[in-house]
Specification:
CATH topology of the largest domain: Rossmann fold
CATH class of the largest domain: Alpha Beta
Shape: elongated
Number of helices: 14
Helix content: 40-55%
Oligomer: single chain
Strand order of the largest sheet: 3-2-1-4-5-6-7
CATH superfamily of the largest domain: Glycogen Phosphorylase B
CATH architecture of the largest domain: 3-Layer(aba) Sandwich
Number of strands: 13
Strand content: 5-15%
Order of helices and strands: HEHEEHHEHEHEHEEHEEHEHEHEHHH
Structural class: alpha/beta
Radius of gyration: 22 Å
């Protein structure tokens, strides 16, 4: 099956060649200003876990000249300031590469971006942060260009990327569960075995809070942090809070995902980008609640554990590798009906409410675990080693 994917990609390449050639000609008359060591291609700069990871990666190379291309139309520019640094240049090309009515502009930009990379005096590294445009760009680059991809989770991209695997020297995945699902996919599609050896596990890292000896609130309250997309199921958090008779709050663009009848009983912080404000919000709650159908390993769990919150989460992705029921939180069976998830979570919260000493023990354990496993040092070292391999 895999050879057919390769053939399809090559035929598509022939069809779009005139557009790519036009893009190269445009690049000749509208050149990219400056010389760059690393080209990053990211979809968005609105609020999101992936966007936060991308911003941290981009800032790991202060001694290098970095250029970032954003290729999709973001909902807002909330995270854009996080991508700024003296050595970073940002280009937002989403108006051209994310326009289904003028899709030929996307094809032209593939040639244009390839020409920009080709004309660098020193061969740069190209990093693809789960970006569809970058996959389509990859065949247009010279073989000596080292291309690296980052996959956050098993999604539709897991299939889209298959015919472009030959162009990537390394694949980064953030969770063991994601790696296994991709390996299973490789086997189903008969992808050559040597591509498995290119996969690297690099867990996300977070800037750890300096103050860890804070006083946690005595009131038991739930916090949800993230988007309101369907697979996250944030409405279950509101239902759990109602069933348990406890307050709940939501940080992120979530309000529209909560049924109208549940909104009056919960608090919405909206989108926040100020680090100090986000830190205060975490510290005002005791339990981080994740009710997703699928995940990799959410950064919000790292951030919450680092501040002593207990974890109440579905047993998806790599969450069970870090959260053990009774030790630092409680895992919910994600395969059971939603009503059963709500009931099981409410029972857990009732127990914690009656045994506050266990929550205090969980807080201490989670702070200790986060400091041992979630710091930025290993994250930074792994990415710098991978991107700067064979680079002076």
């Amino acid at each position: 099956m895999y050879p057919w994917l390769i053939l399809k990609r090559k035929l598509e390449g022939i069809a779009i060649f005139p557009f790519a050639l036009l893009g190269r000609l445009i690049a000749r008359f509208r050149p990219l200003r400056g010389e760059y060591d690393i080209f990053f291609f990211f979809p968005f700069y609105h609020v999101g876990g992936a966007e936060k990871v991308h911003s941290e990666i981009a800032k790991l190379f202060p001694e290098k000249r970095v250029v970032i291309f954003f290729t999709k139309k973001s909902v807002n520019d909330a995270m854009l300031p996080q991508f700024t640094a003296p050595n970073i240049t940002v280009h937002n090309i989403g108006a051209y590469t994310d326009n289904k009515w003028l899709y030929f502009l996307n094809l032209i930009w593939r040639g244009r971006a390839a020409a920009y990379i080709r004309r660098q005096r020193a061969t740069p590294v190209v990093f693809n942060g789960q970006c569809n445009f970058a996959y389509k760009l990859s065949p247009h680059l010279r073989p000596e260009v080292r291309q690296i991809e980052l996959i956050h989770a098993f999604t539709g991209f897991s299939y889209i990327r298959l015919p472009f695997l030959p162009f990537y020297a390394a694949t980064v995945m953030i969770s063991r569960e994601s790696i296994q699902r991709h390996l299973d996919l490789y086997k189903r599609w008969k992808v050559p075995a040597h591509f498995e050896q290119r996969i690297h596990l690099i867990m996300n890292g977070i800037p750890l809070p300096e103050a860890t000896g804070h006083s946690l609130p005595r009131e038991l309250s739930l916090l949800y942090v993230g988007r309101g997309t369907s697979e996250k199921r944030p409405h279950l958090v509101a239902e759990i809070a109602r069933a348990a008779g406890l307050p709940a709050a939501f940080l992120g663009p979530v309000e529209d995902a909560i049924p109208a009848g549940l909104r009056p009983s919960v608090h919405f912080y909206g989108e926040q980008t100020d680090a100090a404000a986000i830190d205060r919000i975490y510290r005002q709650h005791r339990v981080i609640t994740i009710t997703s159908e699928r995940e990799g390993f959410p950064m919000v769990i790292m951030e919450a554990m680092a501040r002593g919150l207990a974890v109440l989460a579905t047993d998806v992705g790599d969450i069970p590798y870090h959260v053990k029921s009774g030790e630092n939180g409680f895992l919910l069976n994600h395969q059971q009906p939603e009503a059963a998830i709500v009931q099981e979570a409410a029972q857990c919260l009732a127990y914690w409410k009656q045994h506050p000493g266990q929550l205090d023990a969980i807080a201490a354990a989670n702070i200790r675990y986060a400091r041992e496993h979630f710091g930025m040092e290993a994250f930074a070292q792994a990415y710098r080693s991978l991107l700067l391999k064979d680079k002076a």
